[in-house]
Amino acid sequence: MLREISTLLAKDFRLEWRQRAALGGLLLYVGSTVFVCFLSFSLRGGTPPPPAWNALLWVILLFAAINAVAKGFMQESPGQRLYYYTLVRPQAVVLAKIIYNALLLTAVALLGLFLYTVFLGNPIQDLALFVANLLLGAIGFATTLTLVSGIAAKAGGNGATLMAILGFPLMVPMLLLLIKVSKNALDGLDRGVSQQSLLTLLALNMIVGATSYVLFPFLWRG
């Protein structure tokens, strides 16, 4: 299993490097969105208040995550998926996709936070808590959207639209927790206040990951 996962991860990294235009487009999206936010608030003569700063950051990261994960399964043809079916186990496929997307979204989230603080200031009072919450969010987005991407790819048609329709309702509870914890980090509240929310986020990530591991073989054979 570990050998299959490492092989699939290496394949995904090679494909991403060959299709650097897609990665460049994702980074351009994050950078240009942050810059537009900067221009909008600079016209008002200042930086956004912390609640708006927090909300805009998660909106940017959410749409960047959807754009990044959407191509995971949908860029592969049915013939390629059938070929993988003869070589590796479906559990290895979904775990490799989740790990790859988690690494990609973590890099995008950290870059987005860096650009965001450069252009729009840094009101974060508890940076360690904020970054930990950001990493949990990247992993949560990866686990949830990877399974949704697999369902959308199997359904055919306009997979991006189907992925958005299926993904947003699943992301709302996670987003509410992420925004709550990041707001606590912005305000510098005691970390004990955020402990329950962090544990809930961790539990959600584990539940979605386990669900993907159990259900993906049935989707893969469909």
Keywords for this entry:
8 helices, single chain, 222 residues, mainly alpha
Write the layout of secondary structure elements.
Blueprint: H1 2-18, H2 20-42, H3 50-74, H4 78-87, H5 90-120, H6 127-155, H7 159-187, H8 191-221
Helix pairs in contact: 1-5, 2-3, 2-5, 3-5, 3-6, 3-7, 5-6, 5-8, 6-7, 6-8, 7-8
Q: How would you characterize this protein structure?
A:
With 222 residues, this protein is an all-alpha fold. Helices cover 88% and strands 0% of the residues. It has eight helices and no strands. Helix 1 packs across helix 5, helix 2 packs parallel to helix 5 and helix 3 runs antiparallel to helix 5. The longest helix is centred in the middle third of the chain and has 31 residues.
Total DSSP E strands: 0
Mean pLDDT: 84
Overall geometry: globular
Oligomer description: single chain
User: Spans of 5+ residues with little confidence (pLDDT < 50)?
Assistant: none
Report the structural category. Answer: mainly alpha
Binned, the helix content reads over 70%
Strand content: under 5%
Kindly report how far apart the N and C termini lie.
22 Å
Q: Give helix and strand order, one letter per element, not per position.
A: HHHHHHHH
Largest sheet: none
Question: What's a quick, concise take on this entry?
Answer:
By secondary structure, the chain is an all-alpha fold.
